Task: structure prediction
Amino acid sequence: HTNYDALNYYLQGIKVHQDHTQELDLWTLCDAYISIIELYFTDLCDDIHAEDEIKKYIELGLSINNQVPQIWYCAANYHYIKGNDDQAVHYINCCIKALFHIIQHNEQHNEHLPEPTVEIQNNIGKLAMEMECYSLAYQVYTHVIQLDDRFAEIWYLNGICALKLKKKEQAKHAFLQAYHLLQQLKEQQQLEKDHGLLQSIQDFLNE
Result:
């Protein structure tokens, strides 16, 4: 029941927002649609209407605000899961285009558009990698590192993309950064001794 309670909570919030707000905040509204889509992707995935609801809210989200990278990500993820590879690649391209539109806008204007979190950008990069869109993923990870360079996984994935793009020096640099960060965690005893990622990076560096 709690999953449907969450759904009803979002739906009521949308209704209140639409009924009582003279100027609709299309970013907030789109965020609510994304939350509903994510609910149908996860906790409500067994619902008989899940697929129809996902499609409905993706279309609604894109129709009200196509500047939100996460709604394009939802569309890409949906089509990727369905095996519609061409459409999935189209939507991940749109997603990353929307992301870099926000980044450029925020660099040039005082009024900032909401930029997705590092975690969301990491998920965007991972989906692009799954689709073998390594150039797009590399752009995303290179930007994320500029935002916050403390995550070993981000450096590692950036290195993988660089390798795929035959950027060997950049790959080596990224793997070294990841290695140092993981070693720091190991010394602080926040990492298991035989952590798989550390071993993978050592293998790459030894090649």
User: Anything to note?
Assistant: The chain is about 75% helix and 0% strand. Residues 40 and 50 are 5 Å apart (CA to CA). The radius of gyration is 19 Å. The chain has a mean pLDDT of 91.
